[in-house]
Every structure is written in structure tokens, then in C-alpha cells.
Specification:
This is DUF521 domain-containing protein. The protein is an alpha/beta fold. It folds into 3 domains: about 5-190, Aconitase, domain 3; about 195-295, no CATH class; about 310-420, Aconitase, domain 3 (2-Layer Sandwich), CATH 3.30.499. About 40% of the residues lie in helices and about 10% in strands. Helix 1 (about 5-10) packs across helix 2 and helix 9 (about 210-225) packs parallel to helix 10 (about 240-255). The radius of gyration is 22 Å and the shape is globular. The structure holds FE3-S4 cluster. The site of FE3-S4 cluster has 14 residues, from helix 16 and helix 17.
């Protein structure tokens, strides 16, 4: 790979051991990908916290050296422990496994929660912004069109590329650690304009309106196009942040979609023709009532209707979604045999607290969680066998990860079912 003089000086150690290790990692990574150079980034979203059970042994007593050991080993792929300095460019922590206010409800080992607190302080001292959410774009990290980013988390990546028009591949713990320290990432894949055009076409023959419909369309899309880049024709309703968030998360779950083009929404696709950069349109994949019903059925992984747990907020809820859940629960009570956890970024939780939404949800018997989700933490209320969720992504992963039965439906169906203690949803 071609390096600039500045990059060579980092590699040679002129700016310290940590940046030299980071450059070494980026060089190996870029060469494996066939990249010819690096590109500057000023926006990194990764995973740096050191409080998962699997890395606990590396931290030791929880002193700075222990956390340096974790960062060196897991974020820089270095066998030697190096002092980790402050990040060079704005860098944020994505979702973690522990809600620092609700870890007892989660059933997390208190020692692990204490370690999480220490890990957060260690990272904060190094300039890592502790957003602790899979939706950094909801809480202030909103890159501009064309900006080169280094983001992890498939639902965040697809939103970043397709809605914001910024540019990122799906990065990992190692490359985001190295990018935070150097402000560089390999220039390949979706950083290159020529790789960003649509190559599949999906034509909608049915209305796609509410949030669950967008999740179902996303789930269909991922199965159909796998890792390709679809463009859409026939949208009847203008989606909003919440719907696009659910759509993208689902498309990146059933498939590996990292970029889609919705004319008039994706900044690079003012028209369908622009999405394909003037190339002939491929034969369309049709999404009609039959496909919608089949996909909706595919998301039902349960037979028992007695409901133990309802999970809302995957990807993490916006304030509008928190408001809606509170509205649905006002003056009501969740069934005593059913738990309800609602997930939202901590920054949005504060707004929910001040707006009275948290109080309404808690009075009804629900819990508002931040910083985490059950698929990441692998923590569910004790004895859960049957869950329901308004997220196609969570319906895809949670039964697979935790071996529970899972229902999928709209937020209204989920809340009504939580109150009834049984699944009341119907396939559309
Ligand atoms: Fe976020 Fe967890 Fe869903 S990371 S996208 S809430 S599976």
C-alpha cells in the first residue's frame, strides 16, 4: 500500500508505540483487502469496552495496565501491551452488554458491572465518547454526505451509507481501534464511489406504511439480494428515521446489505436512473401482498401464545418511539407473568425521563433499558421461553441466540400482548 510521509512516520513509531501498532494493523488489513492506500476518517464508531465475560481475565485487577492489555490485544492485535493514548479523531463506543442502571434486573454479575464502570472511565479519559448505543446517529453522531467513516454494527452501517450518504464498510473491533488512534482506514469497498451503485431492483406492488411493514420489507430484501445493493421503485409513503432504521436493520440481518438506494431519500440517488449511474435497469424483484405475507410468516418463530417477555427498541428507540410506547401504556398494567423491556440510548432516556414517558412505562410494570440489548448481553428475564418483539432484526437473532420462541408484530400488537400476557398478533 502507498503510505503518505505522515502515515510512514506513524508506522515508524515517531508518534508512539500505540499508533505504530495501529498503523501496522491497518497495513496488514488493507493489504489483505487489496486496498492501494488509506483514507482519512474523522468519525469512528467501534467496540472498546472491556467488561464482557470472555475478556474479563485479561483485565486483571482493573487497573490502567489491564485495560491497556485489552485494547492492545483486541483493538490493535498486538501481543505486547502498549500505553494507549487519547484517540486522534472523534470516536464513540457502540452498544455494550451492561445497562449501568439496570444491571441487577438484567442479572449481570455485580463485579462485571463494576468493571464496566472502570472501563468507561478508562475509555473516557482517552476521548472515547460513551454513547453506548447501536444508533449513534440518533444521539449526535451524524456524519455528512460523502464523509469517510469507520463504523461497526450492521444496522448503523447501512443507515450511515444509505440514509446519510456517508461512507463506511462494516468494520471490526480491531480496525476501529486502529482508526481511532490514527484517523485512517483502508480505502476500499464502499469508500470508493464506483462501488456504491445499485445492482438490483425491487419493485413495490403493495403499500409499505407503518414501522413493522418497513421491517418486513427489509427482511424480504436481505433474503432476496443477500450482499448486493438494491434500489427501490414504487414507494407510496415517505419513510422517516424510525422506519428506515428498522428497514435497514432487517435487511442487514436476513442478508448482508450495507447500502441501498431509495430515490429521493438516499443522497446519491435523486432518481432511480442515478442509483444505477445510468446503467440499464435490471429485471425487478416484485414485492407484493404474497411476498409480504410470506415474509411476515417467516418472522414467526413460535407456536406457544403464552408470552413471557416483550422486547422493544431494536435498534434502540427514538424519542418518538418512547412517546408512542408510553401513550399505549398510559393507565394500563402489564400482565404479571410477562416482562417488558424497552431499549433506548441513554441520551434519549434522559429526554424520556423528563417527558414523563419512563414513569408511565415503569408504572405499567415495564423497564426502560439503555446501553445494551438482549441479543448483545444474552440476558433475559429468568425462565423466559416465549418472547415477542416489534423488530424483525431481534426476531431473527434472539430465538437463534437464546433458544427462545419468538413472535414478531407491530409495536401496538406487542404492547397489547404484554398487557394480555399472551400473543395477540396476526400476520398481515
Ligand atoms: Fe441494536 Fe441489539 Fe438490535 S445492537 S440493532 S438493539 S440486536
Amino acid at each position: 500500500m502507498q503510505l503518505t510521509d505522515f502515515e510512514k512516520s506513524m508506522l515508524d513509531g515517531a508518534q508512539g508505540d500505540a499508533k505504530a501498532r495501529a498503523m501496522d494493523l491497518l497495513l496488514r488489513y488493507g493489504e489483505a483487502l487489496g486496498a492501494e492506500r488509506l483514507v482519512e476518517t474523522r468519525n469512528v464508531a467501534g467496540a472498546f469496552n472491556a467488561s464482557t465475560p470472555s475478556v474479563r481475565h485479561m483485565v486483571g485487577d482493573g487497573d490502567e495496565e489491564g485495560f491497556d492489555r485489552v485494547f492492545s490485544g483486541l483493538n490493535l492485535d498486538s501481543d505486547d501491551v502498549v500505553d494507549i493514548p487519547r484517540m486522534t479523531v472523534p470516536t464513540c463506543q457502540l452498544i455494550t452488554g451492561i445497562d449501568m442502571e439496570n444491571h441487577e434486573t438484567q442479572g449481570v454479575d455485580p463485579a462485571l458491572a463494576e468493571l464496566q464502570g472502570k472501563s468507561e472511565r478508562y475509555l473516557g479519559k482517552r476521548g472515547v465518547n460513551m454513547m453506548c448505543t447501536c444508533t449513534p446517529y440518533q444521539v449526535g453522531n451524524v456524519p455528512l454526505q460523502g464523509e469517510h467513516c469507520a463504523w461497526m454494527e450492521s444496522s448503523a452501517v447501512i443507515y450511515c451509507n444509505s440514509v446519510l450518504g456517508a461512507r463506511t464498510n462494516v468494520e471490526g473491533k480491531e480496525s476501529t481501534g486502529a482508526a481511532g488512534l490514527t484517523g485512517r482506514i483502508p480505502y476500499w469497498g464502499l469508500h470508493m464511489p464506483e462501488n456504491r451503485n445499485a445492482n438490483r431492483l425491487i419493485r413495490l406492488d403493495v403499500e409499505v406504511d407503518d414501522m413493522s411493514e418497513w421491517g418486513v420489507l427489509g427482511y424480504f430484501t436481505g433474503f432476496e439480494v443477500e450482499e448486493d445493493q438494491p434500489a427501490f421503485d414504487g414507494l407510496t409513503h415517505q419513510p422517516d428515521l424510525m422506519k428506515l432504521k428498522h428497514f435497514g436493520a432487517a435487511a442487514a440481518s436476513s442478508g448482508g446489505v450495507e447500502l441501498y438506494h431509495m430515490p429521493g431519500i438516499t443522497p446519491e440517488a435523486p432518481t432511480l436512473e442515478a442509483a444505477f449511474a445510468g446503467a440499464a435497469l435490471p429485471a425487478p424483484i416484485i414485492y407484493g401482498a404474497k411476498e409480504r405475507k410470506r415474509t411476515w410468516e417467516r418472522l414467526q418463530n413460535a407456536t406457544d401464545r403464552k408470552l413471557d417477555f416483550v422486547m422493544l427498541g431494536c435498534p434502540h428507540n427514538s424519542i418518538e418511539q418512547m412517546s408512542r410506547v408510553a401513550e399505549l401504556l398510559e393507565g394500563r398494567r402489564i400482565h404479571p407473568d410477562t416482562a417488558l423491556w424497552v431499549h433506548t440510548p441513554r441520551a434519549i432516556r434522559q429526554v424520556a425521563d423528563r417527558s414523563g414517558y419512563t414513569e408511565v412505562i415503569e408504572r405499567a410494570g415495564g423497564v426502560v433499558m439503555s446501553d445494551t440489548c438482549p441479543s448483545i448481553s444474552r440476558k433475559l428475564p429468568k425462565g423466559v421461553r416465549v418472547i415477542a418483539t416489534d423488530s424483525a432484526k431481534q426476531a431473527h437473532y434472539l430465538p437463534a441466540i437464546t433458544k427462545v420462541q419468538g413472535w414478531f408484530g407491530s409495536v401496538e400488537q406487542c404492547v397489547e400482548s404484554a398487557v394480555a400476557g399472551e400473543w395477540l398478533g396476526v400476520v398481515r
